[in-house]
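Incident log entry.

Two folding requests arrived from the same account within the same minute. Monitoring flagged them as a possible duplicate submission, but the sequences differ. Recording both here for audit purposes.

Request one:
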Amino acid sequence: MDDQLLTIQELIDSATSSLKTARNMLSEFTGVADPTKLKHTAQASVQSSVPVSDGKIIEGIFDGQNMVDPEGQTYPVPANYASKSKLVEGDGMKLTITDEGKFVYKQINPVDRRMVGGVLIQEDGQYKILSEGKSYRVLLASVTFYRAEVGDQVTIILPKDDDAIWGAVENVMPKHVAETEAKAQIAKEVDGELMPDLDE
């Protein structure tokens, strides 16, 4: 038993070491420190930094939390703005940095969208929506804005043709409301079955 545990631990250590080496090699090759940003870096506009009279403009792709430019540099998008604007992972964005240092974000190229329903859960200390057999991360600002609680039914917006990690909250149906509606629907169906058919 101890030998098996030792072998398993050695395999895990070896796999972890190999993964770390692969990530380092990928980072050296691409110049991007976080490989998960590669997808959004590749999508970002080549015209990343354009001087303007009152500052400069940077274009990039929203990764669900930040804007990523073509070089892999991330710019924090205010969570309240992302939440209210219902930004979706993969949306093209423009950041204007004024001479005063003010950051002004604008959505310029929204991706095609689809909506799915799911249940709000808490996993690894983060709020996620469990839908389609997968859990999608959502911004804490969206959860608090809707006063959502674990177990609530949530509709999220996802990119139509992409495998997303993040979802944008569209609306929330509290758990007790969903349960009441479900019970009412079941009662209605049962009543329908019990009602005599007048045509007979």
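Request two (distinct sequence, not a duplicate):
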Amino acid sequence: MSRHAALPALLVLSGLLAVRPAPAAAASGWSVRLVHADGDSSGTAELHIQGDRFRVSEEGNPQEAIVDSKGVTVVDDAKRSYTVVTYEQMEATLGAMSKMVQGVQESQRKALEDAMKSLPPEQKAQVEKQLAALKGSSSGAGESSGDVKVTATGDKATIAGLPARKSVVSLDGKPSMEIWLTPEIPVGPVKELLTRLGKLAPGQAGIQARYVEALEGVDGFPLKVVDLDPEHGGTVMTVTEAVSRDFPDSEFAPPAGFEKTAFDLGAMGK
């Protein structure tokens, strides 16, 4: 084709491109609805994720949590109030609580040691077990023992319309949890929160801190989690709906007109 013949063809092509609608940009956020179970209780929660922020709410609970890189904002719809809790505040509060607990445990240990002096041998053995338990909990031994590994099995499934791959979490070589993960939903902000919370008070977090550590190298949002305990196991979380969408900035901010209240760890759980 000569240069003169190609020119009209390019003009026609450019005209077609001009009138053809541009492809829609992919939404940057996700709305996730899930069902969770904890022992005899269960519930439904909704999670909105976008960028480095997410918002989680649960049916029947007036409190919602908005999480970003700075901390957590707890919104109470019933009281029309909200409280901002930074990671630094959490660390300071949990650190103080940890010291208080260790002080109580030390007092209990000394009292038991004094009581042992006048006890018969059989009762002394029972007290020694209590002392060993107190020493283990105060030193954070439960946090350092045990080995957690996450292994991809290669199994695939479709859950809530999304592709998922199965991984098995093992504790000390024994399978303890089955997780179905999808790479479609960003997991960064959720993992950041879990990681930071797990490191705030490792002595109290115990095995949960090790699970969080093991999951740091796993890429994917959990669509289904199954507890493999032969006695009390079962499905503990399943995503029932996942929709890609964009959220306005207001979605990750307290509602207008709500009163800001001071951080009080004791009052937050009420």
